[in-house]
UniProtKB/TrEMBL annotation:
Residue ranges crossing the lipid bilayer per the database entry: none
Pfam family, one: SprA-related
Compositionally biased tracts (Polar residues): 64-73
Bias kind Low complexity: ranges: 21-40
Organism: Pseudomonas solani
InterPro entries reported for this sequence: SprA-related
Name of the featured protein: SprA-related family protein
Region (Disordered): 1-74, 176-210
């Protein structure tokens, strides 16, 4: 027997109220069961959709995290390379500048890893002339020029310092030439004075002998000194 089948239905006159109630209850239960099953499927579908959404969001978040990590690593590599370049540049200035250069100072940037990296720097250098000594100024400016152009890639500021040192050296050359002309003139005057003094001393030492010779000459040339004249006439 199949419950609910249309092939066989009991007569209404023979059916008891309890039987009808039982059938009605069975039909109601079946309907409820169908509704419950439908609701369960709806919930299953809804739960699956939410899980897919969560999985998609998680994958997107993971991709974003990986991209950020790659960007951080690239930035760190660039900062590290810049740090090495800056330090080498400034240390070249300081090493060649020696006594005329100061210690390097740096500006820093904090990287994604929390470390500080040098992104700029400078070294102070003395380009003043040596007072009263153009030769020393020339030597100093030669060192300053080498220090300014020591890095592999001198900056515009480095080239300006080198140009200023060259200008100071040019001025020192002019002063040195003038100084040497003055020294040569003084030396010539000194030699002339020494020669004149030497001639004066020679003249003074020769005067007594000359006076004596002059006296002898005068004595011989005097008529009284000649004695009686001889008459040579026959």
């Amino acid at each position: 027997m199949r419950i609910g089948s249309a092939a066989y239905l009991p007569s209404p006159t023979l059916a008891s109220p309890s039987s009808r109630g039982s059938l009605s209850g069975a039909a109601t239960e079946s309907s409820s069961s169908l509704r419950s099953s439908s609701a369960t499927n709806d919930r299953s579908l809804s739960t699956g959709t939410r899980a897919d959404v969560r999985d998609g969001e998680g994958a997107a978040s993971a991709r974003a995290t990986r991209q950020q990590e790659q960007q951080d690593l690239q930035e760190i590599a660039e900062l590290a390379a810049r740090d090495r370049e800056v330090r080498a540049h400034e240390q070249a200035h300081a090493a060649v500048g020696a006594a005329y250069a100061g210690s390097p100072s740096y500006s820093f940037k904090r990287g994604p890893d929390g470390q500080s990296y040098a992104t700029g720097g400078e070294v102070g250098i003395d380009v003043s002339a040596v007072a009263g000594d153009p030769a020393a100024t020339l030597r100093k400016m030669a060192v300053v020029q080498r220090a300014a152009l020591a890095p592999a890639d001198p900056s515009a500021q480095d080239r300006r310092v080198a140009a200023e040192a060259a200008a100071q050296a040019g001025q020192a050359l002019v002063e040195l030439a003038q100084q040497r002309r003055e020294e040569a003139s003084e030396e010539t005057a000194s030699k002339a004075a020494a020669r004149a003094k030497s001639e004066d001393e020679s003249s003074s030492s020769a005067s007594p002998a000359a006076n004596q010779d002059l006296g002898i000459y005068l004595q011989v040339a005097s008529p009284s000194a000649l004695g009686p004249l001889l008459d040579t006439r026959a």
